[in-house]
Design a protein that fits this description.
Elements lengths: L13 E6 L10 H17 L2 E8 L3 E8 L5 H20 L12 E5 L5 H9 L1 H4 L14 H4 L12 H4 L5 H11 L6 H12 L3 E2 L2 H11 L14
Parallel strand pairs: 4-5
Antiparallel strand pairs: 1-3, 1-4, 2-3
Helix pairs in contact: 1-2
Length: 228
């Protein structure tokens, strides 16, 4: 069966997931995280992709990002980053073969209703995995930027994030307040399903807009009540 054509329209935000092959560890020590982040900065800049949120787990990666020029900017970024990191990892740990579980997964995200939920879903990964009790306790995530104001030359705020307040302090306070309520299980399941199956995370109107933009039919997940 032919692989589905990668869809990545310019200026449309994507939730990207890349997993280790057979849940294999991708980050074995702190230097691994540092190296991956440095190349993520390099290739996101090279291919003009704005990274809004991210988390590096031990055996997978989540990104929330928007291609700003090339339609396939995210694909180019992930391919270059993936190849570079595999070479580093295999050389460091004296291994051969693949590190990643096939190509990365992604879903187009409706910014008007799902974007901030995607932010929270990504940055709460370590909490759901019971690695920490609070996202601020996990070092390798954008929560420190988006919620705590740490300076970053990787993370770029989405326009929806900037609408959270008129000043940086207001935005940080409002963003942290979003984490007072946990994501519902149906919403978590929906985000997971849309990413794993490469569906559109959004309502029918968003799906129709994306179909008109790229000129082909797309699938959406089963939509529940829109998240607040």
């Amino acid at each position: 069966m032919a692989r589905r054509r990668r869809v990545g329209p310019k200026d449309v935000t994507q939730h990207v997931v890349q997993r280790g092959n057979n849940r294999k560890i991708c980050f074995a020590c702190e230097q691994d995280y540092i190296v991956y982040v440095s190349w993520l900065k390099q290739y996101s800049a090279k291919y003009d992709v704005a990274v809004h949120a991210w988390v590096l787990m031990t055996n997978h990666v989540h990104l929330l990002c928007t291609p700003q020029s090339e339609n396939l900017g995210v694909s180019q970024m992930m391919q270059s980053l993936g190849r570079q990191y595999v070479r580093y990892f295999n050389d460091t740990y004296k291994q051969t073969g693949t590190l990643w579980e096939g190509r990365f997964k992604s879903s187009l995200v409706c910014t008007s209703s799902y974007l901030l939920s995607a932010y929270r879903y990504i940055e709460l990964n370590p909490v759901r995995a019971k690695m920490v009790n609070d996202p601020a306790q996990y070092k390798w995530s954008s929560y420190h930027v988006n919620a705590l104001g740490k300076e970053s030359d990787l993370c770029q705020p989405h326009a929806i994030y900037l609408q959270l307040g008129q000043t940086s302090i207001e935005r940080l306070n409002t963003y942290r307040s979003l984490f007072q309520d946990t994501l519902t299980q149906p919403l978590i399941d929906e985000i997971r399903a849309c990413t794993n199956k490469e569906l559109v995370l959004g309502n029918d109107k968003f799906k129709q807009e994306m179909e008109a933009l790229i000129g082909e039919k797309l699938k959406t997940g089963k939509m529940g009540r829109p998240p607040k």
